[in-house]
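Input set for joint prediction.
Command: fold jointly, output tokens.
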Amino acid sequence: MIETPYLLFLGDAPDQLSAKVAQGIKDWRPDNAVGQLRMEGCKADVGLTDMTLAQAREAGAKTLVIGVANRGGYISQAWKKVLIEALGMGYDLASGLHNLLANEGDLVAASQINGQTLHDVRVPNVEYPIANGVKRTGKRVLAVGTDCSVGKMYTALALDEAMRKKGMTSTFRATGQTGILITGSGVPLDAVVADFMAGAVEYLTPDNDADHWDIIEGQGSLFHVSYSGVTLALIHGGQPDALILCHEPTRPHMRGLPDYTPPSLAAVRDTALTLARVANPACEVVGVSVNTQHLSEAEADAYLAKVEAEMGLPAVDPFRHGADKLADALAAL
Amino acid sequence: MIETPYLLFLGDAPDQLSAKVAQGIKDWRPDNAVGQLRMEGCKADVGLTDMTLAQAREAGAKTLVIGVANRGGYISQAWKKVLIEALGMGYDLASGLHNLLANEGDLVAASQINGQTLHDVRVPNVEYPIANGVKRTGKRVLAVGTDCSVGKMYTALALDEAMRKKGMTSTFRATGQTGILITGSGVPLDAVVADFMAGAVEYLTPDNDADHWDIIEGQGSLFHVSYSGVTLALIHGGQPDALILCHEPTRPHMRGLPDYTPPSLAAVRDTALTLARVANPACEVVGVSVNTQHLSEAEADAYLAKVEAEMGLPAVDPFRHGADKLADALAAL
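tokens >
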């Protein structure tokens, strides 16, 4: 668990896109951040108040979150001065970069002086159990994709927001580093050892109130040969009551796999549902989330109408239209 | 790669079953072992010549393989004297135990004197790539099970033997510690980090001659919620041309999961084939391997005949009848 609120470190971000972790925190958990810290030459701005380390500390910030990715994901020397100063002032640090804070000797030394914590959310810090498959109380919904990077995290966060607004009780359960930094906790599933993947998901989504929904962030795709095992561990460890299919309709091929054609929504529905019902025989597919960013408004509307007709399920782009229809489908389950 | 031939260390094995790794080496790769080493009180005997460390060294042994599992899988103090003496005489050590040789300070120290290698086959010693899904040359067959521990490794090794006898070219590709110790190499797939599982399988089964068969050892089951992600990584990383379904027909429930009923062979066939064809559209299910150890001869024959009729596929128990029928099915593909 990463202590909130954060100060978001944007460093010397080369462009806005490189600050997508900070943007995600600002968009989805604005209460988790008191401000942003930008170094000279920073080309990103997530729209929070610019603060110094001292000002943010005064405002209550507990953790300096590295909300920016360098090319290559490393921790630059230019950042070190700020990070070490932050540790000296009592901040914890949190990072989702490939290069770990824990492998930087000067940061480790600085953190030990006052007992500050270095959170590397890309690696697990828990010994997860092997999954036992025992049925848990409460409800769970999982986003499953036709491909990687089609908007599963966005869908889950938008659904969480829509459900809260409707007075439903829900918790977004992060399974990747961006989601973990946004919410302050979760399981970095792609870094978990094979035998413990499904157990890590069980750990992430424990027993809960009967009307509570865990919204589990999806990863990969059953049809993406590089990562499909991670997806199946989510389906079996998650025991979902409901699946939401996520799709990006303009992909010429699977992400990173030029020879692989994306599967149809019907194929994902059938295979995901067959496998999900092993762990939860009552599981249903309740809706489709379509990432229409490469379609015009008219094209998007037409595509969504076509999906609704063909699949007999509500279909939305949560970015364009919010996730109310998906929340309603869960409420009706 | 573990250097052969081995001397098989049976230690103070409490019973025959505890020496199943050594027995596997003796049964499947007898040329890999020059003899066995038994301590006082050893209750196991795999039928090899008893040798001292010096005698086996004289006979060419390069590696002392711990072919026995203590209760708890630890490296006992009683063994240490022998293991340290072996290192001093120039042996490498190999172990599949939970407790690692590399974590025993006295063994590490003894190994460093003459540069001997400690092989802990339970943990990966390679940085596997992320799977790229590129079609590889040569042919591959994968054993997929209705459950864990139904005889997938046995089936694969028996198939390898049957294919060699027929003059086909094949390689057994180990994916678990027993298989790795038997053959001297492989991937301990259950210990690989999630993101790299399918890539590890690609690494294990590289391009090969057009008529060469890799026989990939299966793990888990698509229908076993604890380990299904590992199974799917095998299916997608392995790109199998052929699947063999493995089954144990008397299980009241899935192994370790009292609330889970084993799936039908037809269910495994349909789901495994759908997923396998993502990576290899030409994949076919070619046969069924049934573990009939809990059936009488007559019951076994009747069950196999029923499976053949229902599935339209050859069905054998390789332990009772050899794997010739399965090898013939591959040859006919």
